[in-house]
Automatic annotation (TrEMBL):
Organism: Caproicibacterium argilliputei
A single GO molecular function term of this UniProt record: metal ion binding
Residues reported to bind S-adenosyl-L-methionine: 69, 98-99, 189
Membrane found in the keyword field: no
Organism lineage: Bacteria, Bacillati, Bacillota, Clostridia, Eubacteriales
Name the record gives this protein: Methyltransferase domain-containing protein
Amino acid sequence: MYFTCPICNKPLYNTNRNHSVACENGHSFDYAKEGYLYLLPPNKKHSKAPGDDRAMVAARRRFLSAGHYRIFSDALNKLACGLLQSQSPVVIDAGCGEGAYTERLTAALRAAGKAPQTFGCDISKAAVRLAAKAAPDISFAVASSFSLPLPERCADLLTDVFAPVVPEEFRRVVKPGGYFLLAVPSARHLFALKEILYDAPYENAEKDTAYPGFRFVRRVPVRGSLHLTGQAVQDLFAMTPYSWKTPKAGRDNLQHVSELTTEIGFDFLVYERDAT
């Protein structure tokens, strides 16, 4: 058991009942029927149901399962396999969502002859439930990236795909010499979708951000185009933050769209944890 107690940070152990875990201070947490742990204390929730809701999670699962972002998943997997030298690396997916990238990354590492220990954490219970159900051989927990329930210096690699970046916490859990792999949108990612939603669509800012405790190694751009029809158009919108902040006029515009062709692009930023 790699997970630690979210209350006192002590190691968690499987109990004799095998359907719960506990720490030496007596804090106990039950496994959900899907196999994940709920390690998000009430004082760290900030809302009744934080994170992506069921509709958003279901849309993302349909979209990613259809392979629309496969080029990004493949690029992530290739990068990770090239970075990791250990035969049994510890991998953390911080903000794992419904687990599509986590699952494919784990499979790619296994195909490369490695035996990864993979841990996925997300603040959304709906997302983690779906992730754990789809990949029962991966350890998932409902938890905040601002307080990961994992030991210090345990990870060979931490991945973050469009999730909050918490440099201090990421540095705490990544081993010296380990890697932090961050995915960010390119300047014109989904620009055609923005043209439908907004009167004045904007390009995303591109910059190499420095994070304390990490050395920037390189930027790996991945570009493509996407042609969507029918439900996939609405799923793309529903799975993005645009679904939260788009004005009614933009939403109405999209309702009449049954076909969309757009540029897509991720940049993978590679950081190495310092030796101190």
